[in-house]
Amino acid sequence: MTLPVRISDRLAAHGLQANKGLGQHFLLDLNVTRKIARLSEAGPADHVIEVGPGPGGLTQALLETGARVTGIERDARFLPLLEELAAAFPGRLEVLHADALKVDEATIVGPQGARIVSNLPYNVGTPLLVKWLTGEFQPRSLTLMFQKEVARRIVAEPGDPDYGRLAILAAAVTMRRLVLEAPAKAFTPPPKVDSAVVHLVPREDRVAGNRLEALQKVTAAAFGQRRKMLRAGLRALGGEALCRAAGVDPSVRPETLDLEGFLRLADALLTKA
Length: 273
Description:
The protein has twelve helices and nine strands. By secondary structure, it is of the alpha/beta class.
């Protein structure tokens, strides 16, 4: 089967448009999607999970790398388009009609693991990233398109305006890089904001288990009141006493404290428990 060069032709043939309620913005330019596929480092030996493939622009680029792809698509309207793509790449594309927030990725890929590469729907991007950072399933890598402001929050460092809980969780588990910026005009329909791709690779010394759970509690409390001093934000967890036990100045604000400081707080919380 030969696919039309322009993915927009396939959309038009099926009479499909983006659903704003699902945060859909299609990335149809194969030059951009192929660049994302290269940045993901996917190849013939890889199994790739893609969330929200939609009309299949990024899916096609991933299949062209030789990788095997599992697409998780919530919107049933796109299943016929993805079936056409599967027919053009026999045996290498499986499509699941499911909600990615509820999927157990480990059951999809088995012990060999997988890379995750996605142009994420805007309304579920952050919850999905937190799921992948803190859940039992550990991707081999994550190459993800977000709204640019969210991408900045993922790679931010202490003292940056965008530094917060998301940056700390990402840094505790992965090595993070912003690898590509995409203007709004690259999408159909164009969103009101620009987008960016973040590439994350698991750290060998990744924080895990009870320590990661404690880090989530500490960061949620601290950044729930980010403009207040740590002693106030962490009051429910021990406040100033917890800070003192961790060797952290209770008068600092959370956006200035680095990962190591938050890990000391997490360790102190575990000791207290």
